[in-house]
Amino acid sequence: MIGCGLWGRNILRDLIKLGCEVLVVEPDPDNAGAAADAGAASVVGTSDALGAVDGFVVATPATTHRSVIENVAAAGLPIFAEKPFTTTVRDAEALADLCGDRLFIMHVWRYHPGIEELGRIARERSLGDVVGLRTTRTNWTSPRTDVDGIWTLLPHDVSIALELFGALPEAEAALAEMHGDVPVGLVGLLRVAHTDAPRTSGDGSGVRPWLAVDVSTRYTDKRREVRLHCTEGVAVLSGGVSDHILIAHGGAGSGADTMQTEKVPISTESALLRELRAFVDHLGGGPPPRTSAADGVDIVRTVVHLRSLAGIPG
User: Which of 42, 67, 153, 155 is the most exposed place for a label (fewest CB within 10 A)?
Assistant: First the structure.
């Protein structure tokens, strides 16, 4: 495991829960001490000092991912890199070309039990055809210093769209909120391409589901909401940790007196634990994690496009 900062400590904790012997690379003395205290089998300052390993988890700042991954790629082992994968399309493409099918990206919300349930609803059309997806992701400021809050928050919702639609939507419009010269929020509209639309309308004409995203680091309360809008109802996941999906049954013409709601139970197991289990299983010969390097490139490209549409420099 390379990097053991604030989020990396959670990764280390869950890898140990999964029975892994975790060797940590962490040059920062405070982080190295925390890794040792948390149960790392060893802590070294550089990847060159690592012993034999089965794979790599990269949890360093996003702006270092290219150099870190290039440094370990020669080992020919599977690599699981935290999001954001990179902050430029060029870096993402270079890493995907270098590592191919050995590199995967940690888009944790694709493993959330609630997102998996929404995906089932979308695929089985149990609420009719999918119309669109609306996501809200807010909090106050961000603990990360290497990237702004949009890079911290927005990739989650783009990856959720990939999980539910089976294809990434195309960015059409975006508006940024700036605090001085720092981007602190973005509202974006995306739509699935005609060729990728997961469903068609009754008359056979392609209907393109939309994604409306709202991310911000200017909310005093932490909000996480994913709403799947369908022709016969709306399914809602509220909060990062929930034990149910709330479904409101009814079409556009149904009144409040005829609307029916139900709670669909979901697992409360940690999404982080679930995605790390997928990688550990892959190291043992199991299927690959859900987000390939190619998917990771497309997610970075989508975020970069939204930022450009919003007029965010760089």
Answer: 67
- Which amino acid does the sequence have at 97? D
User: pLDDT tens digits for 179-196?
Assistant: 999 999 999 999 998 776
pLDDT, tens digit (0-9, with 9 covering 90-100), for 263-299: 999 999 999 999 999 999 999 999 999 999 999 999 9
The structural domains of the chain, ordered by start, are 6-108+274-291 (3.40.50.720), 109-269+303-309 (3.30.360.10)
Neighbours of 42 (CB within 10 A): 14
Contact in structure between 279 and 105 (CB atoms under 8 Å):
no
Tokens, residue 282: 């892959």
Q: Distances in Å between the alpha carbon of 204 and those of 122, 197, 199, 200, 220?
A: 18, 12, 9, 6, 45
Residue 249 CA to residue 284 CA, distance in Å, equals 43
Phi, psi of 10 (to 5 degrees): -70, -40
At position 25, the amino acid (one-letter code) is V
pLDDT at 4: 97
* Structure confidence at residue 253 (pLDDT): 76
pTM over 0.85: yes
Question: Does 206 have pLDDT greater than 70?
Answer: no
What is the rounded CA–CA span in Å between residue 117 and residue 235?
A: 9
The answer, yes or no, to whether residue 202 has pLDDT greater than 50, is: no
Neighbouring residues of 247: CB distance < 8 A, sequence distance ≥ 6: 121, 127, 233, 234, 235, 236, 261, 262, 263, 264
Q: Which segments of 65-186 does DSSP mark as H helices, in order?
A: 65-73, 89-99, 113-124, 149-165
Token pair 């690379």 is at which residue?
Answer: 25
Radius of gyration over every alpha carbon of the chain, rounded to an integer in angstroms? 20
77-to-71, 74, 101, 105, 116 alpha-carbon distances in Å: 12, 8, 10, 14, 28
- Judge whether 212 and 178 are in contact, CB under 8 Å: no
